[in-house]
C-alpha cells in the first residue's frame, strides 16, 4: 500500500507541476506572439483564471490543444485507475 500511495501522490504532484510549466510556457509564448492581449492584466482571480484558460488554448500560446491531451490524459487515467477500487460498495 505504501508504494501505491507514493505513486498516487507523485502523479498528483507531477500533474500540478506540468500544469504550471505548460501555463508558464503558454503565457510566455502568447506574450511574444500577441502582446496586445496582455496590456492590462486582470485584477480579480476569476478573470485571471479565465485569461489563463484562454491563453492555454489560444493560437497565441504556440501549443495546440492536443498537446495538453497527450500529456495529461495518461496521468488522469492513472489516477482514475488507482482510485477505482476505492469507489463503490
What does this protein look like?
- 72% of the residues lie in helices and 0% in strands.
- By secondary structure, it is an all-alpha fold.
- The chain has one domain.
- The protein is elongated.
- The chain starts with a helix and ends in a 6-residue tail after the last helix.
- The mean pLDDT is 77.
List the defining traits of the structure above.
single chain; 89 residues; mainly alpha; 3 helices
Topology (SSEs and partners):
Layout: H1 2-33, H2 45-57, H3 65-83
Radius of gyration: 17 Å
The backbone outline, from C-alpha atoms, is elongated
Strand residue content: under 5%
Q: What's the average pLDDT? A: 77
Helix-strand string:
HHH
Topology, number of strands:
0
Largest sheet: none
Count of alpha and pi helical runs: 3
Low-confidence stretches: none
Number of self-contained structural domains: 1
Structural class: mainly alpha
Q: Please give the share of residues in helix.
A: over 70%
Please, what is the oligomeric state? Answer: single chain
Distance from N terminus to C terminus (CA atoms, Å) equals 20 Å
Amino acid at each position: 500500500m505504501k508504494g501505491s500511495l507514493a505513486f498516487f501522490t507523485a502523479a498528483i504532484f507531477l500533474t500540478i507541476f506540468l500544469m504550471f510549466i505548460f501555463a508558464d510556457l503558454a503565457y510566455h509564448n502568447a506574450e511574444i506572439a500577441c502582446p496586445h492581449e496582455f496590456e492590462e492584466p486582470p485584477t480579480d482571480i476569476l478573470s485571471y483564471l479565465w485569461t489563463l484558460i484562454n491563453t492555454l488554448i489560444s493560437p497565441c500560446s504556440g501549443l495546440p490543444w492536443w498537446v495538453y491531451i497527450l500529456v495529461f490524459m495518461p496521468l488522469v487515467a492513472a489516477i482514475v485507475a488507482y482510485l477505482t477500487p476505492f469507489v463503490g460498495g
